[in-house]
Specification:
- The protein has about 200 residues and is mostly helical.
- Helices cover about 70% and strands about 0% of the residues.
- α1 packs across α4.
- The relative contact order is 0.13.
Length: about 200
């Protein structure tokens, strides 16, 4: 008689658990033992599936980016540049202090401390953050073309500013700042966008 069919490996669920380990401990702090225990696999299976720890991080980042994709699309779909800033920054304040998730942002927390042998990790995380910044810049370019932003407004600078504030909020959240504190930062940042807007 043939052997029973082995239980299938739920890659998405395993990546979600690995993502949380990286999110809580950072790339450097997350150990293979913690990752394999969380994922319910052994080290040889991890290496067979993902190549190495960095490969697992990249897969977890792909998963994180995919899960956040719908929210980013909602942000970009806001009717004005001011509304884009509000949706993004207030959304970050809420998401990064949601007790259902680790505090802060994986794209920040994952690479705060990386030593020898993992120099590529901060660049990988920065590249993911840059994708969001690019989307914001394109949206602000459109806002300027539509007469929503002043003629003197710099879409690239505004996108970079929102991105920088987002990263700062992530650091604050991972350091224990509460939702009210992050919302205060978001509110001040929104005023900077309002100053460049023609429609208030």
């Amino acid at each position: 008689m043939g052997m029973g069919r082995p239980r299938e490996f739920d890659a998405e669920a395993a990546l979600d658990r690995a993502m949380e380990v990286f999110w809580r401990h950072g790339y450097e702090g997350a150990t293979i033992a913690q990752l394999t225990e969380a994922m319910g696999i052994n080290p040889p299976s991890l290496y067979a599936c993902f190549g190495n720890k960095e490969g697992l991080l990249k897969a977890a980042l792909d998963r994180y980016t995919m899960l956040r994709g719908a929210w980013i699309e909602e942000v970009i779909a806001a009717p004005t540049a001011r509304d884009v800033a509000i949706r993004m920054l207030m959304g970050i304040a809420d998401k990064q202090t949601d007790p259902a998730n680790p505090p802060g942002c994986l794209l920040v927390q994952g690479g705060i401390a990386c030593g020898s042998g993992s120099e590529n990790v901060p660049f990988e995380l920065a590249a993911r953050r840059a994708q969001n910044e690019d989307q914001l810049r394109e949206r602000f370019v459109r806002a300027k073309a539509e007469g929503d932003l002043k003629e003197t407004a710099d879409p690239a600078a505004l996108a970079r500013y929102i991105s920088a504030v987002s990263v700062g909020m992530g650091v604050m959240a991972s350091s224990g700042a509460d939702r009210d504190a992050l919302r205060q930062v978001a509110s001040v940042a929104v005023q900077a966008i309002e100053a460049q807007s023609l429609q208030r």
